[in-house]
Amino acid sequence: MFSVRVQEADFDIKADMAASLHDEAGIGAVVTFNGVVRPEVNGKVLKTMTLEHYPGMAEQQLRALLEEARTRWPLDAGLIIHRYGRLYPGDNIVLVVTASKHRHAAFEAAEFLMDWLKTKAPFWKKEELADSGPHWVEERATDLAATDRWS
Fold first, then answer.
1. What is the CA radius of gyration of the chain?
2. Chain-centroid distance, C-alpha 147
3. pLDDT tens digit string along 87-117?
4. What CA–CA distances, in Å, run from 48 to 71, 72, 76, 124?
5. Count of Cβ atoms closer than 10 Å to residue 63 Cβ
6. Where would I find the beta strands (DSSP E) of 54-91?
7. Are 125 and 51 in contact (CB under 8 A)?
8. Residue 114 has what DSSP assignment?
9. How is residue 37 annotated by DSSP?
10. How many CA atoms, within 13 angstroms, populate the side-chain half-sphere of residue 20?
């Protein structure tokens, strides 16, 4: 099963992973990545992070990324869940699950998806640090460089 969800509510890693793998035969490897809100940004305490997205376009772009992963690797299942709204340190942000007959494909597909999610998905991040007001987070050169290896 291949699916994408963009939601404000938290997700249940174990239940969502199990649902995405239900009735999938032949899987030999499952890779999961769970991104969480960090408590610090560049050594400064993070109070909150707000994620905004473009509804409809975000889901469409995530589906396109998952489809691209399917063309590059022999995946048997895949799941992307991305949250939006106000989040706090320790909260879940994103869940990526990839499954294949072999671990190499599952690992690479998960890395590909995370690298591209950071640069291609229409989400905008605003951070509020303990010692300053809210500010929008700019695209990072390191995130862009990570996508270069997939081009």
1. 16
2. 14
3. 999 999 999 999 999 999 999 999 999 999 9
4. 37, 36, 36, 14
5. 14
6. 75-83, 85-87
7. yes
8. H
9. -
10. 27
